[in-house]
Amino acid sequence: MNKIKVIRFFLLAAVSLIGLSCNDDELNSSELLVYMRNWSSDFAVEKTYADDGSMIIKGVDEIKFPLYLTREATVDVYATIVYDERQVGAYNQLHGTSFKAFPVDALSISGNIQIQAGGLQSADSVSVKLDYSKIGNGNYLIPLSIQGVTSDDTGIRASSTAGTVFYPLSVTVNNIKTKDTE
Fold this sequence. Notes:
The chain contains two helices and 13 strands, in the order αββββββαβββββββ. The protein is an alpha+beta fold.
């Protein structure tokens, strides 16, 4: 009886590992997929208001990254990247965090990107410009997803495992910066 339990355990473990490797190997498949990579684990921003009312930002004000293909395409590929607020809750639940969604009206995305025929990476980067005048202190998350892929190659699609990237952002606000504290 104990031998059967041991065999079942190893079979279950083997099936689990095979299932996990299938998800990880999607980008190594022969399918033509568009995907993204996270380049930074998190960003810290300090927002300070000067005596004259102007805002001084220390930290990132733009996130830029290219798109990739799993193999060369014979035709141009176009992908649309969007802010995907619905991913914030899923991310928080999966990682045990409590990020707030970065306000959609506080960012602008150049989200229509081309990967030229014969290339593996977009020449232009996705650009996400951040407007800190509309947010306060807090930990925010910026999830960006591939919304659509178009090409004359009808088999191309967005990766299901690398079609969304997450950029955590910590914002600290200092209300007044006087000349005496400089």
